[in-house]
Amino acid sequence: MATSAGAVEEFVPEFAEAFPFESFNRMQREALPAILDTDDNVVVSAPTASGKTALAELAICRTLRNDGTALFLAPLRALTNEKEDEWDRFEELGYSVYVVTGERDLNPRKAERADILVMTPEKADSATRKHDSPRYSFITDVDCCVIDEVHLLDSDRRGAVLEVTISRLRRLCDTRVVALSATMQNVEDVADWLDAPPEATFEFGDDYRPVPLSAGVETYAHGDNAFADKYRRLYRALDLAQPHIEDGGQALVFVASRQDTVRAAEKARDVIAERDIDISSRGDYDFHTDAKELNNDTLRQSVVDGVGFHHAGLSREDKNRVEEWFREGKIQLLFSTSTLAWGVNLPARCVVIRDTKLHDPLEGEVDMSPLDILQMLGRAGRPGYDDAGYAYVVCDGSDADKYRQLLRDGKPIESRLADELDSHLNAEIALGVVDDIEDVMDWLETTFYYTRAGSAPDKYDAADALRERVSATLEQLVDGGFVDQSGLEIEPTGLGKLTSQFYLRLDTAEGFYRLCERAADDETPELDESAVLRTVADAGEFDSVSARRDERETFGAVLGNEGDDLDAGNRKVLAILRAGMDGTTPGELQSDAWVIRQNALRMLAALRAFCERFASPRDANLVRQVEARVEHGISEDAVGLTAIDGVGKGRAQKLASEGLETPADVRAAGVGGLVSAGLSEGLAERVVQQAESLPALSFEWSGVPDSIPEGENAMAELTVRNAGDGEPAGVRVTVNGVEMSEETRYLGETTLPVGVFGGDAEELTYEVEVAFSELPLVPITDSRTVSVER
Ligand code: ADP
User: Fold this and answer.
1) By the 8 A CB rule, do 67 and 93 touch?
2) Which of 291-300, 364-373, 718-727 has the lowest average pLDDT?
3) Sequence-ordered strand ranges (E) for 148-208
4) Rg, the chain, Cα only
5) Which protein residue's CA is at the shortest distance from atom 26 of ligand 1?
């Protein structure tokens, strides 16, 4: 049978079944030879929905033909999962697809064997950082890396990660790069950066858009009350959406937050009823039955009116159903946060951006990024269903010109590396990718930052100034103790490596280091909980946190005077951590608490590692306890229970209320005791088994007398034995509160000398304290008393 022009069968017969259509479209046919017949790096920018996924798949086909491994970088976790499902089609052809998600779930064998790897830029960053370890060595075998939505380069925080990761990957394995992007102004800069030749650089304009787009800016009458303004914008959005809904089309309205999606949907249902807008799904009884399956109650009531909401807090099943019903037209009006714009492909005839400003828990009120705006607007127009797409930004009059210009001209992709140059350069040095001064300059030249600076000298520094800036940054790293330099050679220090490993800002790492120095210094007070919390809350990562008035009013109740010299934002973080430790976060502090706690937990894990290295296991253990309390919201006396795998807040509190406060208590109580405390038998067995692997110590003091004559002395010994699994620990012996010996070891078993001297004191109290640096167990102690005879 003759094939039609552009038939998939003709170009990739062996993969034809992996494509969901039979012939390539005009855009795909034009880009196809560069992707399929050469090894050139390729850059393609084309409108949303023009069919770029097929280009990614063609690049993958070429790699598979050559028995190579392809890596697909997707901007969101949700998309990596979507690809896993879609690419079952490759699995059916005998190729394996592996999505790299969390550290814990990583299956190195599967990753090693995979033909197609799928990751987010953040995962690729961490994998390339660990390429030396056997678990992550698979990352150095990549032959072709496909970057989806490469314009993510210009995204706040995430852009620099993508940029350095690609530069690093190319240094590590000289991979081919195929980069895909929505329409952008400066495709040549990206092509230049990636060394894509002109014949492999494609810029497909609006005439390749499957559905023509009409986009505009609509202003609203701005008042004094932010709450009322939201409703004004909602009415505006509904005015814009109404004709499309009445005409049987769909509208997707983007709002600032998860709660806003819910509130806006609720209000919209009222307005629709008032205005008597005809939404088609109302009389669909099967749909009413299906809707009963939804987990979210509010959503269930809403969708039967044809109005839905979608945000990252919904369960996976609910999200899937909402997406499916929107595609089927059962939901005609959908409120969503911006994540949907980067996530699943869910176009709508009409897209409205109701909010251009949003509250970020770490940054306060911010403008939605122009990149997000364009990404959202790009979702207007459903190929195959709509003749045209309509997209609107609703904003204040004073912002209208800004958005009009954005819609008209788009936006050049900028590098975001300059903002975080110091920590990224530190990471490259810590990794050993860069090991002398010349390498540092070579590295600079592989960044998009350098390329873009060359093409937009008015916005960036000239090449010489950039080099100077990098030299100055390197000097700063050496001065700060992150890097050792001798002559031209440079080497990471322990501090530099830990800083990179935990993705810390450099000033934060310096603060942590100073805290460790104070903790290790005998002259200064020992580390305590307040110092730990304060150091984290005051870190630069939290400098932009803002505190509303109602939030400030809770500070006194939570903190008393603690931290009253901190900025309000940092004090808010302190209050959230303090209250969170006991699981008593006041309602006013709830809205940002989750994000702040997650960030604080990452920093506490870092501080623990710093203490282990630069202070003592005892200090590390203290930080570990704080970390567990912040994570679980659990009182100090029961925190040790969280060391048991599978015991979180609820179970720990239940056990503690029955008087079982430590893993040792749990072991002593046994399965029977736990069942009496209210656990089911199966659970009790698992908990006891887990508790048995935790340290169980016994102490043997041999040769320590009950009394000793004044002026005499005796040599005795202390043996500490751990019957559980081995753990890093600090063992410290004091006499009358003064330290006699301290050692850090993997415990095991250890014997320490104990000198008994009949001196001035009437009594000698020997105390041993064992602190586990990686477990939230309260330190375990034992003691002996010797009286001095006079
Ligand atoms: P983009 O990544 O450019 O936004 P997609 O690759 O997701 O766009 O494609 C948009 C839609 O068009 C998808 O549903 C896809 O299956 C469909 N599509 C892409 N190429 C073709 C083609 N050649 N023939 C028919 N449908 C296509």
Assistant:
1) no
2) 364-373
3) 176-181, 201-203
4) 31
5) 21
Taking residues 359-363, what's their average pLDDT?
86
Domains of the chain: 8-208 (3.40.50.300), 213-409 (3.40.50.300), 417-501 (1.10.10.10), 634-694 (1.10.150), 697-789 (2.60.40.10)
Task: Judge contact between 16 and 9, C-beta under 8 A.
Answer: yes
Q: How far apart are CA 625 and CA 644, in angstroms?
A: 13
Question: Which has the closest alpha carbon to 51: 25, 31, 76?
Answer: 25
Of all residues in the chain, the percent with pLDDT exceeding 90 is: 75
Whether 494 and 613 have beta carbons less than 8 Å apart is answered as yes
> Which amino acid would we find at residue 497?
K
Q: How confident is the model over 668-678, as pLDDT tens digits?
A: 999 999 999 98
Distance from the CA of 201 to the center of ligand 1, in angstroms? 20
| pLDDT band of 78, cuts 50, 70, 90 | confident
Query: Which residue is closest in CA terms to ligand 1's atom 1?
Result: 49
Cα-based angle 270, 271, 272 (whole degrees, multiple of 5): 90
Reduced to 3 states, what is the DSSP secondary structure of residue 563? coil
Nearest to residue 111, comparing CAs of 85, 80, 148, 139? 139
Distance CA 334, CA 339 (A): 13
- Paired residues of 698 in beta bridges: 721
Q: Which is it for strands 389-396 and 213-220: parallel, antiparallel or unpaired?
A: parallel
Which range, 366-370, 383-387, 784-788, is most confident? 784-788
**H or E element in which residue 101 lies:** none
Q: Both tokens of residue 720?
A: 């500490």
Return the ligand 1 atom nearest residue 28 CA. 23
Alpha carbon distance 452, 531 (integer Å): 43
Q: Which numbered atom of ligand 1 lies nearest the CA of 210?
A: 12
**Which atom of ligand 1 is nearest the CA belonging to 50?**
3
Q: At residue 663, does pLDDT exceed 70?
A: yes
Whether 4 has a pLDDT exceeding 80, the answer reads: no
- Please give the single-letter amino acid code of residue 701: W
Task: At 510, list the tokens.
Answer: 């310096």
Answer yes or no: are the C-beta atoms of 517 and 509 closer than 8 Å.
no
For ligand 1, the distance from its centroid to the CA atom of residue 46, given in whole angstroms, is 12
Q: Which of 53, 180, 203 to mutate to test the pocket of ligand 1 (most atoms within 8 A of CB)?
A: 53
The H or E element spanning position 662 is none
pLDDT at 282: 62
Q: Are 268 and 335 in contact (CB under 8 A)?
A: yes
Structure tokens that stand for 5 in this block: 């022009």
Q: Is 571 helix (H, G, I), strand (E, B) or coil?
A: helix
- Mean of per-residue pLDDT scores for the chain: 92
In angstroms, the CA 600 to CA 709 distance is 54
Cα(88) to centroid(ligand 1), Å: 17
Mean pLDDT for the stretch of residues 432-436: 85
**Integer angstrom CA distances of residue 485 from 437, 478, 493:** 9, 7, 10
pLDDT at residue 760, as a whole number:
85
Q: How confident is the model at residue 281 (pLDDT cuts 50, 70, 90)?
A: low
Q: If you average pLDDT over residues 713-738, what whole number do you get?
A: 93
pLDDT at 498 (0 to 100): 95
Cis ω on the peptide bond leading into residue 248 (within 30° of 0)? no
φ/ψ of residue 38, rounded to 5: -130, 170
The answer to whether the CB of 490 falls within 8 A of the CB of 429 is yes
Q: If you write DSSP's letter for every residue of 210-223 in order, what string do you get?
A: SS-EEEEEEEE---
Give the amino acid at 32.
L
Quick one: which of 538, 537, 528 has its CA closest to 580? Answer: 537
User: Cβ < 6 Å from ligand 1: which residues?
Assistant: 20-21, 24-25, 28, 46, 48-54, 345, 383
Could you write out the DSSP letters of every residue in 73-92? E-SSHHHHHHHHHHTHHHHH
Question: Do the bridges between strand 42-45 and strand 70-73 make them parallel or antiparallel, or are there none, so unpaired?
Answer: unpaired
Max mean pLDDT among 432-436, 459-463, 726-730, 737-741 falls in 726-730
